[in-house]
Design goal:
CATH architecture: Orthogonal Bundle
């Protein structure tokens, strides 16, 4: 039986879901852009254990401190449009006997919503599991309260050297030492990017 795998943001829907979600918090767009650049830097230098797309992991503390909920994630996703012709393409493939899969670094709330709009089974979706409401319950208020100053520093960073130096120190040293509950939360997030996408393709291939 033939099968085909699609990425989501770009080929199926134009919305950058996480970027739109970050707009819900003060200076969220700039914060996302700086952290996304940090993700790019780590990817280019091929840092061990880093997976492309981990911007979604790095923005998590600020999503939590911004009071964003899973309901917000779903609401933003509902506003997403489909790429022109995407629904017709998926429908045509499925009618011709193709098994359609979506493999995306997107938060699962968004990936499952777009899959539903396209008529793709939820069982055929590989994405980033992100139980945000549970994260919010676990997070320590004192830790969350300190993140405002960190946010202000991040959005003031200029140049790759500053970005890498500050965020390396923050995520690798400061978070484990001063933000234990946030560190625990980050340790549970596995972004569906890089090698994990390749692993998803291999797991699908094994089915056929």
């Amino acid at each position: 039986m033939p099968y085909i795998c699609f990425d989501l943001e770009g080929p199926l829907s134009p919305q950058d879901h996480a970027y739109e979600v970050m707009k819900l918090i003060p200076f969220g767009q700039k914060l996302f852009e700086v952290i996304s650049r940090y993700d790019d830097i780590l990817t280019i230098e091929e840092r061990e254990s880093h997976e492309p797309g981990e911007t979604l992991k790095f923005i998590t503390p600020f999503i939590i401190s911004g009071g964003i909920t899973e309901s917000d994630l779903k609401k933003i996703s509902q506003e997403a449009k489909l790429m022109s012709g995407a629904k017709e393409l998926i429908d045509g493939l499925q009618k011709s006997g193709w098994q359609v899969f979506i493999i995306s670094s997107s938060f699962e709330q968004h990936a499952l919503n777009i899959a539903g709009k396209l008529g793709v089974s939820q069982l055929h979706v590989f994405s980033t599991k992100f139980p945000l409401d549970k994260f919010r319950e676990k997070a320590n208020r004192e830790e969350i309260g300190k993140l405002g100053l960190v946010r202000d520093k991040i959005i003031s960073l200029r140049g790759e050297g500053e970005i890498k130096s500050f965020l390396d120190n923050f995520f690798r040293h400061v978070v484990p030492r001063e933000y234990p509950t946030i560190n625990e939360i980050l340790g549970t997030i596995q972004v569906m990017g890089g090698s994990r996408k390749a692993e998803a393709v291999e797991s699908i291939r094994a089915l056929f």
